[in-house]
Structure prediction request, 72 residues.
Amino acid sequence: MIDGEAVILDRNGGRVHQLNQTASLIWNQCNGQVTIEDIAGQLAHAYDVDVEVATKDIRDAIEKFRELNLLD
Prediction:
């Protein structure tokens, strides 16, 4: 992490991805044990946003992680 932002090395794709603070918070929780609802609560609290907005942002971020083949 650099200033709250994660840097992810995709060895298979030969790319480096730099995530902003919000995406980094989501990324760090993607361990297969934490639910989207749990992450939404954290995001809503950390950024003072509605849980529904946070849930949509999380779903969008996870979809992007999948598109980039960063999640198994």
Notes: The chain is about 55% helix and 10% strand.
